[in-house]
Amino acid sequence: MWTCAKPYLAHLAGSVAHVSIAARAVKLCKTYGSGTATVVALDHVDFEVQAGEFTAIMGPSGSGKSTLMHLLAALDSPTSGQVFIGDQDVGTLKDTPLTELRRDRIGFVFQSFNLVPTLTARENIVLPLSIAGGKPDRVWFDQIVDLLGLRDRLTHKPSELSGGQQQRVACARALMNRPEIVFADEPTGNLDSGSAAEVLSFLRRSVDDFHQTIVMVTHDALAASYADRAVFLHDGRIIDECRGASQEEILQLMSRLYPRQAPPEHGKPLGDETNPFAPRTDPGNARHFAATSPARAMLDDRDTAEQPRLAVGEPAVFRDGAPQPAPNGIAPPETEAEISAPRRAITE
Ligand SMILES: Nc1ncnc2c1ncn2[C@@H]1O[C@H](COP(=O)(O)OP(=O)(O)OP(=O)(O)O)[C@@H](O)[C@H]1O
Ligand SMILES: [Mg+2]
User: Is this prediction's pTM over 0.85?
Assistant: First the structure.
């Protein structure tokens, strides 16, 4: 089992022993254009990302989600205000240390995968490390590749992979150098519901098992329900947040926060009758999923194992047939006794 050497949120018997901040925005402003054409994309946003947590950023189109994420990820600079990664004030960094910070401390997953088409999956996964002159940690590489079910796809180029497989490669690439924080902008936006669930489950597992810190922008209440915390933007401001919420609870909060956003187009809802932001690319997305929060279900699993996900002896597999290992490489339960026992203690 890989143990994170970086500071993280230590859950002990359900209580928070220590909280550290992975990223922070202080009075963050971003405007585009000038004069009457000025667009205020972010308006004095104060925001902290807790280390070891999965945070979702939600809001209607144009509310500033990507802008906030790009500023936090040091991909763009603010008009005013500050961004910290850990204790580092990003705005004080010159070009080279800024590049190193992005390369060494931050991982990225984009909606459009952004893999290098001429490289194999394996080469894409280790690319950031190769550029940095580092050598991949073989054990870690194997662990990530197996967790993502990519073992038999490593020699394939992106054009030979499905969208879900490409995004799993992008997830592996993001985690390969063990970044302090991973930013994902609509990582499931181009995926069908099954592939989306696989990517979201992996992101969830990387938080639970490796104490990865993740910030994910999403329109989708179901995707956000995988997160520990969802924050809601409107017109460049954070207007609310919730923790451990189910898909239904997030949808209810959204309809309260954005009452005028339900925009049936041509008299039809956008994919999901109850979700004003359901992605157009996969209209049925949210409907195929269970109603309860996967994040909460996983926590419940660990505490009580009341509702095992696997039938006895049934291996978990990705939809392309690759086996899905259990958390931390522990074999899936095979007997009733194993299933009824708590799957694992929360990793410290
Ligand atoms: N490069 C740019 N030039 C001008 N305006 C921009 C630019 N980038 C973003 N904006 C504007 O800033 C506001 C916030 O944009 P942003 O991309 O952060 O929204 P978003 O919440 O991510 O939306 P979506 O859900 O559609 O991706 C929008 O009004 C957008 O038009
Ligand atoms: Mg966006």
Answer: no
Burial 271-308 (b: 16+ CB within 10 A, else e): bbebbbbbbeebeebbeebeeebbbbbbbebbeebeeb
User: Distances from the Cα of 294 to the Cαs of 4, 48, 73, 298, 320, in angstroms?
Assistant: 24, 23, 26, 6, 22
Written as six digits, the tokens of 174 are: 């993001």
Residue 1 vs residues 19, 26, 194, 205, 329: alpha-carbon distances, Å? 23, 36, 28, 13, 8
| Distance from the alpha carbon of residue 219 to the mean position of ligand 1, in angstroms | 14
31 Cα: distance to centroid of ligand 1 (angstroms): 10
Architecture of domain 10-340: 3-Layer(aba) Sandwich (3.40)
Beta bridge partners of 89: 84
pLDDT digits over 285-339, tens only? 332 222 334 444 444 443 333 333 333 333 445 656 665 554 433 333 333 333 3
If one residue of 63, 68, 275 were mutated to test the ligand 1 pocket, choosing by the most ligand atoms within 8 A of its CB, it would be 63
Which pLDDT score, from 0 to 100, does residue 136 have? Answer: 87
Instruction: Tell me, in angstroms, the distance from the centre of ligand 1 to residue 66's CA.
Output: 7
Question: Whose alpha carbon is nearest atom 6 of ligand 1?
Answer: 32
